[in-house]
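Sync notes, pocket subgroup
Present: LS, DG
LS reminded everyone that the earlier model was apo-only. Rerun requested with magnesium ion included. Inputs:
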Amino acid sequence: MSVSLPNSLANSDVPRHVAIIMDGNGRWAKDRNQSRHSGHRAGVSSARQSIETAVERGVEQLTLFAFSSENWSRPKEEVSALMKLFVEALQRELGELHASDVKLRFIGELGLLDAGLRDKIFEAEQQTEANTGLRLTIALAYGGRWDIIEATKALARQVTEGLLQISDINDEIFAAELQTAGAPCPDLLIRTSGEQRISNFLLWDLAYAELWFTDVLWPEFDQSVFDEALSYYASKQRRFGHTGEQVKAVEC
Ligand code: IPE
Ligand code: IPE
Ligand code: MG
């Protein structure tokens, strides 16, 4: 019997899509008796470095979790300082990202953001639209449950309008309604700061991702830590429910 495995199984050792939960800015700052905000500022430069490494290592897609649906519950001052930081970072980095052929996209409940930040996001997406290098997705005001609920509503509307039969709903049709529609699922998820949880990130998309956790706090995440994660990924045999022997037979 022939075995059908996802394309990504027969891939090279480099993950096509890496997703990162950039965690630990606050603890990094606390260790230095600095404000949480200085931790977030340091985190922006780690994000820049991770983008550079992704480009250098030939990763096709990088998705960075910058602000979760639940992060709205943080102190008001921290939330507004973060929003300001996102605007500034976009303003400062857009030229360089564009010059590096990076195509930028934002996912999340963007309607909740201030108009000023939404304008910057729109500008960044428009300006880099035709770029063909790294596809960089920033998850802002994003929650995996929110994404799944919105997709469910969209399908329910199509059923109500008679455009879709309930019995036709499958993986592919569901995934097409998610914020990540059209992108391959992450092959590798990295989370910094020692926490080993998903915190409502890409709940649907991470179904078969390799998970890699490090105690390193996000502001200290650099190329060598990224490379450690990539080596871990390269050492794994992905089976997607098949047996190791089936996978080997396909790889040969
Ligand atoms: C991640 O760092 C940044 C965001 C969630 C916006 P944290 O701010 O969560 O840092 P810790 O977890 O408090 O150290
Ligand atoms: C996850 O980090 C969200 C982002 C990195 C943007 P959190 O710091 O919010 O996660 P928890 O609260 O520790 O699970
Ligand atoms: Mg945290």
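DG: Residues 13-143+183-251 form a domain with the Undecaprenyl pyrophosphate synthetase fold (CATH 3.40.1180.10).
LS: The chain has one domain: 13-143+183-251.
Action: DG to write up.
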